[in-house]
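Exercise 7.
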Amino acid sequence: MTRNPDVRDTALEASWISRTADLAIEHAKRTGASTIVCASGISPSGPIHLGNLREVMTAHLVAEEIKARGLAAEHINSWDDYDRLRKVPAGLPPEWSAHIGKPLAAVPDPTGQTDSWATHFIDTFTASLERLGVHMRQIRQSEQYPAGIYNPQIRRAMDAREQIFTIFEGFQTEGRHEKSVDERRAEYYPFKPYCQACGTDYTHVTGWAEDLVSYRCRCGHDGSMSIADGARISGKLVWKVDWPMRWAFERVAFEPAGEDHHAPSSSFASGKVLVRDIFGGEAPSTAVYSFVQVAGGGAKLSSSAGGAATPDTALDILEPAMVRWLYARRLPSNSFTIDMAPSAVLRLYDEWDRFSARVAAGDASPVETHLHQLSVRTSVGPVESSARPVSFRLLSSIADITAGNAEQIERLVRQQLSADGAGDLPDDAELLAELEPRLNNAIHYAKSPPEADRTVIRTTFNAEAWAQLDQQTRDGVRMLVDRMTGAWTLEELTTTVYAVPKLIHGLPADAAPTPELKKAQRAFFQALYQLLCSRDTGPRLPTLLLSIGPGMARTLLTTPA
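Solution. The predicted structure, written as tokens, is:
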């Protein structure tokens, strides 16, 4: 559904997405652009992680908001795969150093699955973006530069090289260079050739005249190449010139960037001057985004760090709409943590389900409703989600105790849905399909702990554990079995399980929790876990009981006659 772009919805003005879209629209009007271009850019030098995803999601969400207003918008993503390989990636042999200095798109894929190191990571990331509903026009700089697409812009930069140096010099800290300003200006060229003999960028330009650039490489090769229109080339503009050049070339209206690019002397600051004075364009509106962190370590997610969390690992556990929601609900300038710890995942699903229910019931604010819409639907269509969002706590518990057996999962879920009054349910295969992708997420979640930490339900009464219980706890177990006579629902079981420890200590079932009562509850629950699965802990007890069903629960909690 589109909104009239001339009618401001004041209820949505609190949304950062709406405010940022306003700035992009104003930029396009000022520059006369017919399509509002929102840009992002990533260097595929390693695993493309959840921190990189923030740049892509920020540009995507703003473009989606603009489209929702009935305006023409496009999200473009530049793959900086024509950047150099800077170091040997972790896990590769030392001889891989022969590729340092080559374009990422010219470095082999160690797995042999794709045509290059860059493509390997691009393909993995874009597969995740497809599931996240992110559709963008992808531009590979390893194709643009060699094809001569930017040759006029390169010539302009080379002709204005002294002016460019002077601009940069104004942003540099004094006293950091051995050579004088005049010496450095005379030696400066904004174009870096890739050697046509060895393929690396260990080169320096030795001359520029009549559209011809000459260079010398560390390997000993002296070369030259034409930058005339239509000529194929081997090289690229240096980063701080390349970025503003592409702002002008693509007519970018909005592009987010990390905090490091927005420092007073950074690439964005100098780029604003270059795009105007050298390329005749205007710097895009922008949003500063902060880092995404890993739970527990607080370390910045970095593609150069081993084991960085990537979108596909998050999508193993979280529904695509939830991942979108994680990025959309916070200001880009606010850092946040992706916490995939078991308890955190369960809380996150609970929060998402409550949020979705509030929106469905019409109890959410306009901003919340807007945020939910951006999470579950794009201009292309709905984002992948479960047609029947059964409690993740229940699904993951069932997946745990059944070792992911689809037939048993379907039986237990059907049993619970029937108890909840779900009405007519589809056949087995269709019901399982309605649970996806949440069911698959739950199975991945259940398999993520080490085998020794997974829950295995006993098949017989644990006489040994029973013998260790005091009389009060035994009375409590018997009371629990006696009271499990109502509907076998999560709500009923929760009420019953939490009431028994209070009752056996002479308190009313609705007594407020105290430190002493919480201690007694933990001891009672530990006894139940020992009887059910021979462990001190496990899935949340009401969910565990619901999963195994009333028959097995009574078998494991009742002393044999």
